[in-house]
Design a protein that fits this description.
Elements lengths: L6 H11 L3 E6 L2 E6 L9 E7 L18 E5 L2 H8 L25 E2 L8 E5 L3 H6 L1 H18 L2
Antiparallel strand pairs: 1-2, 2-3, 3-4, 4-6, 5-6
């Protein structure tokens, strides 16, 4: 991507890069699912783009103009490599415990709600950050693909 990434350009890239994926709008975000031949009702999701706060997810203040968040469900080893042990699961409406600023743009953090599941997040990522995240995204896709294959055996 030559210009600053947008939600639409990130989604288009993910759909183009990862065969067997599709986008589903749900839960106030656009989710990228691995679901070749539409064998499952939705498939297995590995990335989402969220553009507004949700009832139980307000930590990033996505209600600010032009702010969006890319979320990626990577593997535990890659999460550990970046952040150490995953934080504990927060209570309903809470955020994971840690020193991360979930409102900072272009900064990779654990997901404010799902960090305990090895999800990561970044607000308005730059091209450089997306390139830096390539291993994380590839691993997330591999994880979704393996989960899909397990569910469809």
């Amino acid at each position: 991507m030559s210009t600053d990434p947008t939600p639409d350009s990130i989604i288009a890239y993910l759909l183009d890069r990862f065969e067997g994926t599709r986008v589903v709008e749900a839960w106030g975000e656009r989710s990228i699912f691995y679901n070749p031949s539409l064998m499952l009702p939705r498939g297995v999701y590995f990335a989402t783009v969220k553009e507004k706060d949700g009832e139980n997810d307000k930590a990033s203040h996505l209600d600010r103009a032009g702010v969006f968040r890319l979320n990626v469900g990577t593997t535990k080893p890659l999460f550990l490599k970046r952040f150490g042990p995953p934080p504990s699961r927060p209570g309903k409406g809470g955020v994971v415990d840690g020193q991360w600023d979930f409102t900072a743009a272009d900064t990779l953090t654990p997901h404010p709600v799902y960090g305990w599941m090895s999800w990561v997040a970044v607000l308005n990522p730059s091209n450089e950050t997306l390139t830096d995240m390539s291993e994380i995204v590839e691993a997330a896709f591999g994880k979704a693909k393996a989960s899909f294959e397990k569910k469809t055996r």
